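Model: You mentioned two targets. I'll fold them one after the other.
Researcher: Yes, keep them separate.
Model: Target one:
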Amino acid sequence: MPFNVQDLSGTFSVGDIAIALSLSFVLSAMIGWVYRFTHRNVSYSQSYVQTLVILGMLVALIMLIVGSNIARAFALVGALSVVRFRNAVKETRDVGFIFLVMGIGMAAGTRFYTLAVVAAVAISLVILVMYRFSWFAASVQRQIVKVQIPPDFGAGGNSTEAIQDVLIAHTSEFELVSIESIRGGALTELMYTVRLKKGHEPGQLIAALGERTGGQRVTVLTGYDQTDL
Protein backbone atom coordinates (compact mmCIF):
# COMPACT_ATOMS: atom_id res chain seq x y z
CA MET A 1 0.00 0.00 0.00
CA PRO A 2 1.71 3.22 -1.10
CA PHE A 3 2.13 5.96 1.46
CA ASN A 4 2.72 9.42 0.02
CA VAL A 5 3.35 12.63 1.92
CA GLN A 6 2.06 15.72 0.15
CA ASP A 7 3.61 19.08 0.97
CA LEU A 8 1.14 21.92 0.47
CA SER A 9 3.69 24.67 1.12
CA GLY A 10 3.90 25.39 -2.60
CA THR A 11 0.93 27.74 -2.32
CA PHE A 12 3.26 30.33 -0.76
CA SER A 13 7.00 30.86 -0.77
CA VAL A 14 9.48 31.10 2.06
CA GLY A 15 9.67 34.81 1.32
CA ASP A 16 5.90 35.14 1.85
CA ILE A 17 6.21 33.41 5.22
CA ALA A 18 9.11 35.61 6.32
CA ILE A 19 7.43 38.84 5.23
CA ALA A 20 4.04 37.98 6.77
CA LEU A 21 5.46 36.89 10.13
CA SER A 22 8.03 39.70 10.30
CA LEU A 23 5.53 42.38 9.36
CA SER A 24 2.91 41.09 11.82
CA PHE A 25 5.57 41.01 14.54
CA VAL A 26 6.74 44.58 13.90
CA LEU A 27 3.23 46.02 13.67
CA SER A 28 1.93 44.05 16.67
CA ALA A 29 4.93 45.16 18.73
CA MET A 30 4.24 48.77 17.70
CA ILE A 31 0.63 48.37 18.82
CA GLY A 32 1.87 46.87 22.10
CA TRP A 33 4.04 49.95 22.74
CA VAL A 34 1.08 52.20 21.95
CA TYR A 35 -1.02 50.23 24.45
CA ARG A 36 1.67 50.56 27.11
CA PHE A 37 2.14 54.29 26.51
CA THR A 38 -1.59 55.07 26.62
CA HIS A 39 -2.49 52.75 29.51
CA ARG A 40 -3.83 54.67 32.51
CA ASN A 41 -5.19 52.04 34.88
CA VAL A 42 -3.27 50.30 37.65
CA SER A 43 -3.76 46.81 36.22
CA TYR A 44 -1.09 46.92 33.51
CA SER A 45 -0.07 43.41 32.45
CA GLN A 46 3.17 42.65 30.64
CA SER A 47 1.78 39.22 29.80
CA TYR A 48 -1.22 40.80 28.04
CA VAL A 49 1.02 42.98 25.84
CA GLN A 50 3.22 40.02 24.95
CA THR A 51 0.08 38.08 24.08
CA LEU A 52 -0.91 40.85 21.66
CA VAL A 53 2.34 40.38 19.76
CA ILE A 54 2.03 36.59 19.74
CA LEU A 55 -1.62 36.80 18.67
CA GLY A 56 -0.81 39.01 15.69
CA MET A 57 1.80 36.54 14.44
CA LEU A 58 -0.47 33.54 15.06
CA VAL A 59 -3.31 35.07 13.07
CA ALA A 60 -0.91 35.76 10.20
CA LEU A 61 0.20 32.12 10.33
CA ILE A 62 -3.40 30.90 10.36
CA MET A 63 -4.25 33.04 7.35
CA LEU A 64 -1.28 31.58 5.47
CA ILE A 65 -2.51 28.08 6.30
CA VAL A 66 -6.09 28.78 5.29
CA GLY A 67 -5.31 30.64 2.08
CA SER A 68 -8.37 30.44 -0.17
CA ASN A 69 -9.36 26.93 0.88
CA ILE A 70 -12.84 27.05 2.42
CA ALA A 71 -12.69 23.47 3.72
CA ARG A 72 -9.42 24.24 5.51
CA ALA A 73 -10.96 27.37 7.02
CA PHE A 74 -13.89 25.41 8.49
CA ALA A 75 -11.50 22.78 9.82
CA LEU A 76 -9.47 25.44 11.63
CA VAL A 77 -12.62 27.01 13.08
CA GLY A 78 -13.64 23.66 14.48
CA ALA A 79 -10.19 23.03 15.91
CA LEU A 80 -9.91 26.45 17.52
CA SER A 81 -13.43 26.31 18.98
CA VAL A 82 -12.25 23.87 21.65
CA VAL A 83 -10.03 26.57 23.18
CA ARG A 84 -11.55 28.19 26.26
CA PHE A 85 -10.26 31.38 27.87
CA ARG A 86 -10.87 31.85 31.59
CA ASN A 87 -9.26 35.26 32.08
CA ALA A 88 -11.81 38.07 32.08
CA VAL A 89 -10.87 41.19 30.13
CA LYS A 90 -11.12 44.09 32.58
CA GLU A 91 -11.56 46.86 30.02
CA THR A 92 -13.42 47.09 26.73
CA ARG A 93 -10.38 49.03 25.49
CA ASP A 94 -8.29 45.87 25.87
CA VAL A 95 -10.74 44.02 23.63
CA GLY A 96 -10.24 46.71 20.99
CA PHE A 97 -6.48 46.10 20.99
CA ILE A 98 -7.07 42.36 20.61
CA PHE A 99 -9.23 42.92 17.54
CA LEU A 100 -6.67 45.40 16.20
CA VAL A 101 -3.76 42.95 16.25
CA MET A 102 -6.03 40.25 14.83
CA GLY A 103 -6.96 42.51 11.92
CA ILE A 104 -3.31 43.38 11.32
CA GLY A 105 -2.37 39.70 11.44
CA MET A 106 -5.13 38.82 8.96
CA ALA A 107 -3.97 41.54 6.56
CA ALA A 108 -0.34 40.41 6.77
CA GLY A 109 -1.26 36.73 6.47
CA THR A 110 -3.33 37.33 3.34
CA ARG A 111 -0.44 39.41 1.90
CA PHE A 112 -2.20 42.78 2.01
CA TYR A 113 1.03 44.28 3.29
CA THR A 114 0.29 47.91 2.44
CA LEU A 115 -3.12 47.67 4.08
CA ALA A 116 -1.58 46.20 7.23
CA VAL A 117 1.00 48.99 7.54
CA VAL A 118 -1.38 51.85 6.75
CA ALA A 119 -4.12 50.54 9.05
CA ALA A 120 -1.74 49.91 11.96
CA VAL A 121 -0.15 53.36 11.71
CA ALA A 122 -3.45 55.20 11.19
CA ILE A 123 -5.28 53.49 14.07
CA SER A 124 -2.27 53.89 16.38
CA LEU A 125 -2.21 57.62 15.61
CA VAL A 126 -5.92 57.87 16.42
CA ILE A 127 -5.31 56.13 19.76
CA LEU A 128 -2.42 58.48 20.58
CA VAL A 129 -4.47 61.56 19.68
CA MET A 130 -7.39 60.41 21.86
CA TYR A 131 -4.95 59.80 24.73
CA ARG A 132 -3.14 63.12 24.28
CA PHE A 133 -6.28 65.26 24.18
CA SER A 134 -8.41 63.10 26.51
CA TRP A 135 -11.28 62.71 24.09
CA PHE A 136 -14.69 61.96 25.62
CA ALA A 137 -13.44 62.47 29.19
CA ALA A 138 -16.09 63.41 31.72
CA SER A 139 -15.82 67.07 32.71
CA VAL A 140 -17.02 66.39 36.26
CA GLN A 141 -14.69 64.54 38.62
CA ARG A 142 -16.56 62.41 41.11
CA GLN A 143 -15.48 60.32 44.06
CA ILE A 144 -16.65 57.11 45.66
CA VAL A 145 -17.35 57.25 49.41
CA LYS A 146 -17.72 54.07 51.47
CA VAL A 147 -18.93 54.37 55.06
CA GLN A 148 -19.30 51.53 57.56
CA ILE A 149 -21.83 51.99 60.36
CA PRO A 150 -23.42 49.76 63.03
CA PRO A 151 -26.96 48.54 62.22
CA ASP A 152 -28.46 50.64 65.02
CA PHE A 153 -26.60 53.81 63.99
CA GLY A 154 -28.62 57.04 63.75
CA ALA A 155 -31.46 58.50 65.69
CA GLY A 156 -34.90 57.13 65.04
CA GLY A 157 -33.51 54.24 63.05
CA ASN A 158 -32.49 56.47 60.12
CA SER A 159 -28.95 55.33 59.44
CA THR A 160 -28.34 57.64 56.48
CA GLU A 161 -29.51 61.00 57.86
CA ALA A 162 -26.37 61.75 59.89
CA ILE A 163 -24.15 60.68 56.97
CA GLN A 164 -26.07 62.83 54.54
CA ASP A 165 -25.70 65.87 56.81
CA VAL A 166 -21.92 65.57 56.46
CA LEU A 167 -22.15 65.03 52.70
CA ILE A 168 -24.31 68.12 52.31
CA ALA A 169 -21.66 70.17 54.12
CA HIS A 170 -18.71 68.90 52.08
CA THR A 171 -20.11 67.99 48.66
CA SER A 172 -22.03 69.80 45.97
CA GLU A 173 -23.93 66.66 44.99
CA PHE A 174 -24.11 63.04 46.10
CA GLU A 175 -26.08 59.91 45.35
CA LEU A 176 -26.55 56.72 47.37
CA VAL A 177 -25.43 53.80 45.22
CA SER A 178 -25.76 50.77 47.48
CA ILE A 179 -26.38 49.58 51.05
CA GLU A 180 -24.74 46.29 52.01
CA SER A 181 -24.62 44.24 55.20
CA ILE A 182 -21.07 43.08 55.99
CA ARG A 183 -19.26 41.07 58.67
CA GLY A 184 -22.23 38.82 59.28
CA GLY A 185 -24.60 41.72 59.86
CA ALA A 186 -22.38 43.45 62.43
CA LEU A 187 -21.93 46.48 60.13
CA THR A 188 -23.72 48.17 57.27
CA GLU A 189 -21.72 49.64 54.40
CA LEU A 190 -23.09 52.63 52.52
CA MET A 191 -21.63 53.59 49.15
CA TYR A 192 -22.11 57.04 47.63
CA THR A 193 -20.91 58.81 44.51
CA VAL A 194 -20.11 62.42 45.41
CA ARG A 195 -18.63 65.60 43.99
CA LEU A 196 -16.55 67.55 46.51
CA LYS A 197 -17.09 71.26 46.86
CA LYS A 198 -14.28 73.59 45.78
CA GLY A 199 -11.74 74.00 48.55
CA HIS A 200 -12.73 70.77 50.29
CA GLU A 201 -10.25 67.90 50.48
CA PRO A 202 -10.99 64.15 50.75
CA GLY A 203 -9.19 64.10 54.13
CA GLN A 204 -11.64 66.62 55.56
CA LEU A 205 -14.57 64.50 54.45
CA ILE A 206 -13.03 61.38 55.97
CA ALA A 207 -12.45 63.14 59.29
CA ALA A 208 -15.99 64.51 59.43
CA LEU A 209 -17.55 61.15 58.60
CA GLY A 210 -15.28 59.39 61.12
CA GLU A 211 -16.57 61.67 63.90
CA ARG A 212 -20.18 60.80 63.05
CA THR A 213 -19.61 57.04 62.77
CA GLY A 214 -17.59 56.66 65.96
CA GLY A 215 -14.32 55.78 64.26
CA GLN A 216 -15.69 53.17 61.85
CA ARG A 217 -13.92 52.72 58.55
CA VAL A 218 -14.44 55.46 55.93
CA THR A 219 -12.99 55.24 52.42
CA VAL A 220 -12.89 57.98 49.79
CA LEU A 221 -11.77 56.78 46.37
CA THR A 222 -10.76 59.52 43.93
CA GLY A 223 -10.11 59.01 40.24
CA TYR A 224 -12.10 55.77 40.30
CA ASP A 225 -12.69 56.06 36.55
CA GLN A 226 -8.96 55.34 36.06
CA THR A 227 -8.62 52.49 38.54
CA ASP A 228 -10.10 49.02 38.84
CA LEU A 229 -12.84 48.68 41.43
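Model: Target two:
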Amino acid sequence: MPDVRTPARPRATGHDGGPGARELLDFAHRTAADPELIASLPLDPEGRTWIRLDGPGGSEAWLIGWPPGTGTGWHDHGGSHGAFATAAGELTEQSLTAQLPAEGWKTLELADGVDRERKLSDGRGRAFGPHHVHQVLNLSPQTHAVSVHAYYPPLPLMRRYSRTGPLLRLEAVEQPEEWT
Protein backbone atom coordinates (compact mmCIF):
# COMPACT_ATOMS: atom_id res chain seq x y z
CA MET A 1 0.00 0.00 0.00
CA PRO A 2 1.23 3.50 -0.63
CA ASP A 3 2.45 5.48 2.36
CA VAL A 4 1.71 9.11 1.56
CA ARG A 5 2.15 11.82 4.16
CA THR A 6 0.08 14.98 4.17
CA PRO A 7 1.11 18.21 5.84
CA ALA A 8 0.39 18.32 9.56
CA ARG A 9 -2.85 20.01 10.58
CA PRO A 10 -2.98 22.52 13.43
CA ARG A 11 -2.63 20.81 16.82
CA ALA A 12 -5.74 20.48 18.93
CA THR A 13 -5.20 19.28 22.46
CA GLY A 14 -7.26 17.19 24.83
CA HIS A 15 -6.92 16.93 28.61
CA ASP A 16 -3.68 14.87 28.39
CA GLY A 17 -1.97 17.12 25.82
CA GLY A 18 -3.16 15.04 22.87
CA PRO A 19 -6.22 15.53 20.74
CA GLY A 20 -9.56 14.56 22.22
CA ALA A 21 -12.32 12.67 20.41
CA ARG A 22 -13.96 15.92 19.29
CA GLU A 23 -10.69 17.17 17.75
CA LEU A 24 -10.21 13.82 16.00
CA LEU A 25 -13.72 14.01 14.58
CA ASP A 26 -13.15 17.60 13.41
CA PHE A 27 -9.96 16.44 11.67
CA ALA A 28 -11.81 13.51 10.06
CA HIS A 29 -14.57 15.84 8.79
CA ARG A 30 -12.11 18.43 7.41
CA THR A 31 -10.00 15.76 5.73
CA ALA A 32 -13.03 13.94 4.29
CA ALA A 33 -14.05 17.24 2.68
CA ASP A 34 -10.71 17.56 0.81
CA PRO A 35 -11.56 16.41 -2.75
CA GLU A 36 -7.93 16.43 -3.93
CA LEU A 37 -6.82 14.13 -1.11
CA ILE A 38 -9.82 11.81 -1.55
CA ALA A 39 -9.09 11.56 -5.30
CA SER A 40 -5.45 10.62 -4.56
CA LEU A 41 -6.48 7.31 -2.97
CA PRO A 42 -6.07 4.40 -5.39
CA LEU A 43 -9.16 2.19 -5.32
CA ASP A 44 -8.93 -1.57 -5.76
CA PRO A 45 -11.99 -3.53 -6.94
CA GLU A 46 -11.41 -6.33 -4.41
CA GLY A 47 -9.44 -5.16 -1.37
CA ARG A 48 -9.33 -2.16 0.89
CA THR A 49 -6.66 0.43 0.15
CA TRP A 50 -5.25 3.06 2.46
CA ILE A 51 -2.94 6.01 2.81
CA ARG A 52 -1.45 6.90 6.18
CA LEU A 53 -1.96 10.56 7.10
CA ASP A 54 -0.46 12.89 9.66
CA GLY A 55 -3.21 13.34 12.22
CA PRO A 56 -3.49 16.23 14.66
CA GLY A 57 -1.29 16.35 17.76
CA GLY A 58 0.60 13.11 17.13
CA SER A 59 -2.49 11.04 16.38
CA GLU A 60 -2.55 8.22 13.86
CA ALA A 61 -4.78 8.78 10.83
CA TRP A 62 -5.75 6.87 7.70
CA LEU A 63 -7.62 7.48 4.46
CA ILE A 64 -9.30 4.16 3.58
CA GLY A 65 -11.00 2.93 0.40
CA TRP A 66 -13.70 0.27 0.78
CA PRO A 67 -14.72 -1.81 -2.25
CA PRO A 68 -18.33 -2.99 -2.38
CA GLY A 69 -19.03 -5.74 0.14
CA THR A 70 -15.91 -5.30 2.32
CA GLY A 71 -15.54 -4.73 6.04
CA THR A 72 -13.21 -4.83 9.00
CA GLY A 73 -14.66 -7.61 11.11
CA TRP A 74 -15.21 -7.04 14.83
CA HIS A 75 -12.30 -5.26 16.54
CA ASP A 76 -11.25 -2.66 19.09
CA HIS A 77 -8.47 -0.08 19.09
CA GLY A 78 -6.32 -1.22 21.99
CA GLY A 79 -7.43 1.54 24.36
CA SER A 80 -7.13 4.46 21.94
CA HIS A 81 -10.06 6.79 21.34
CA GLY A 82 -10.88 7.77 17.80
CA ALA A 83 -13.18 9.07 15.14
CA PHE A 84 -14.03 8.48 11.52
CA ALA A 85 -15.97 10.23 8.80
CA THR A 86 -17.21 9.01 5.44
CA ALA A 87 -15.89 11.00 2.48
CA ALA A 88 -17.74 9.11 -0.27
CA GLY A 89 -20.35 6.35 -0.41
CA GLU A 90 -21.94 4.92 2.73
CA LEU A 91 -20.51 2.86 5.57
CA THR A 92 -22.42 0.88 8.17
CA GLU A 93 -21.02 0.68 11.68
CA GLN A 94 -22.17 -2.11 13.96
CA SER A 95 -21.04 -1.60 17.54
CA LEU A 96 -21.51 -2.85 21.08
CA THR A 97 -22.70 -0.62 23.90
CA ALA A 98 -21.13 -2.87 26.55
CA GLN A 99 -17.60 -2.27 27.84
CA LEU A 100 -15.57 -5.47 27.56
CA PRO A 101 -12.99 -6.56 30.12
CA ALA A 102 -9.48 -5.72 28.84
CA GLU A 103 -7.94 -9.07 29.77
CA GLY A 104 -8.61 -12.52 31.17
CA TRP A 105 -11.24 -13.84 28.74
CA LYS A 106 -11.52 -15.66 25.42
CA THR A 107 -15.29 -15.90 24.97
CA LEU A 108 -18.09 -13.68 26.27
CA GLU A 109 -21.84 -14.07 26.02
CA LEU A 110 -23.32 -10.68 25.19
CA ALA A 111 -26.54 -9.54 26.81
CA ASP A 112 -29.58 -8.63 24.73
CA GLY A 113 -29.76 -5.00 23.66
CA VAL A 114 -26.02 -4.26 23.34
CA ASP A 115 -26.02 -4.03 19.54
CA ARG A 116 -26.15 -0.70 17.74
CA GLU A 117 -26.06 0.05 14.03
CA ARG A 118 -25.65 3.36 12.24
CA LYS A 119 -25.23 4.33 8.61
CA LEU A 120 -22.73 7.04 7.78
CA SER A 121 -22.94 8.56 4.31
CA ASP A 122 -21.02 11.41 2.68
CA GLY A 123 -19.68 13.76 5.33
CA ARG A 124 -21.16 11.99 8.37
CA GLY A 125 -18.89 10.72 11.10
CA ARG A 126 -18.64 9.69 14.71
CA ALA A 127 -16.22 9.76 17.61
CA PHE A 128 -15.74 6.95 20.11
CA GLY A 129 -14.00 6.22 23.39
CA PRO A 130 -11.14 3.89 24.29
CA HIS A 131 -13.30 0.80 24.93
CA HIS A 132 -15.22 0.84 21.66
CA VAL A 133 -15.80 -2.50 19.88
CA HIS A 134 -17.23 -2.37 16.37
CA GLN A 135 -17.07 -3.45 12.77
CA VAL A 136 -17.30 -1.16 9.77
CA LEU A 137 -18.85 -2.39 6.51
CA ASN A 138 -19.47 -1.19 2.98
CA LEU A 139 -22.73 -3.02 2.30
CA SER A 140 -23.17 -1.54 -1.18
CA PRO A 141 -23.09 -4.15 -3.94
CA GLN A 142 -21.73 -1.60 -6.46
CA THR A 143 -20.20 1.53 -4.94
CA HIS A 144 -16.82 2.16 -3.30
CA ALA A 145 -16.80 4.09 -0.04
CA VAL A 146 -13.95 6.25 1.26
CA SER A 147 -13.41 7.32 4.86
CA VAL A 148 -10.96 9.09 7.16
CA HIS A 149 -10.01 7.57 10.54
CA ALA A 150 -7.94 9.06 13.40
CA TYR A 151 -6.80 7.56 16.72
CA TYR A 152 -5.06 8.88 19.80
CA PRO A 153 -2.83 7.71 21.18
CA PRO A 154 -1.57 5.99 18.02
CA LEU A 155 -2.87 2.42 18.04
CA PRO A 156 -0.79 0.28 20.43
CA LEU A 157 -2.60 -2.85 19.21
CA MET A 158 -5.92 -4.07 17.82
CA ARG A 159 -7.89 -6.98 19.17
CA ARG A 160 -9.86 -8.97 16.57
CA TYR A 161 -13.03 -10.84 17.48
CA SER A 162 -15.37 -13.34 15.87
CA ARG A 163 -19.07 -13.26 16.59
CA THR A 164 -21.68 -15.99 16.47
CA GLY A 165 -25.03 -14.73 17.74
CA PRO A 166 -24.49 -13.53 21.32
CA LEU A 167 -21.01 -15.11 21.60
CA LEU A 168 -18.00 -12.86 21.08
CA ARG A 169 -14.63 -14.60 20.91
CA LEU A 170 -11.18 -13.00 21.05
CA GLU A 171 -9.34 -14.37 18.01
CA ALA A 172 -6.13 -12.36 17.67
CA VAL A 173 -4.15 -9.42 18.96
CA GLU A 174 -2.42 -7.50 16.19
CA GLN A 175 0.60 -5.26 16.66
CA PRO A 176 1.17 -2.06 14.63
CA GLU A 177 3.80 -3.64 12.37
CA GLU A 178 1.09 -6.01 11.08
CA TRP A 179 -0.98 -3.22 9.50
CA THR A 180 1.50 -0.46 8.64
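Researcher: Noted. Anything on target two?
Model: The mean pLDDT is 90.
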